[in-house]
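Why do we bother with a discrete structure alphabet at all? Because it lets us treat a fold like text: something you can write down, compare, and reason about line by line. To make this less abstract, here is a complete entry for Transmembrane secretion effector. Read it the way you would read a sentence in a foreign language you are learning: slowly, and without expecting to understand everything at once.
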Amino acid sequence: MFGVGALNALDVFFVTDNLGIDASWLGTLGGVFGIGSVIGAVIATAAASKFGAARMFWTGMVRLGVVMIAYSRMTYLPAATWCWLWRASRCR
């Protein structure tokens, strides 16, 4: 959770500088992250018994890294929102 807190603090600069939109959109991105977290919890519950905890952990870390690199390069709000949703649903 420490990493998510740091990311949320830096999102102010990401939204205003990279996306070029008003900081009021942070609430929307936070809501999308919440929706992705709920989706990820449901997916992880179903997948944990099939794949095992160790495989779920390392594949989740690889996916998280790839999505964070993609998210950092976004310049368009809908694409960044999708990336944020996908990241949140995969980091469980």
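What the structure line is telling us, in plain words: The chain has one domain: 2-90. The two ends are 11 Å apart (CA to CA).
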